[in-house]
Amino acid sequence: MILEAAMLQVKSGLTYEFEHSFKEASVLISSIEGYLGHELQKCLEDDHKYLLLVQWRNLEDHTVGFRESSQYQEWKALLHHYYSPFPVVEHFTRISLD
Fold this sequence. Notes:
By secondary structure, the chain is of the alpha+beta class. It is 34% helix and 30% strand. It has a four-stranded antiparallel β-sheet.
């Protein structure tokens, strides 16, 4: 399993609209092969900052399967105009602590 993490900084005054658009966009990402789940968390110290965490079966399900899909084009249209600056997206894998 791969964990995608993105810190999203939403432009001032647009948090309500962003949250509404994100609910709509959630249907798009969840339809992709290899998608395992996602969550959006809002920062307590900065109400314009969100943390997006998405679980993928493997890296390519995100970087190819989603990013090269028509659903991603709709995702971009719904969400990308809310961000300033544009977020850095990183991928993580769990390590064994045994």
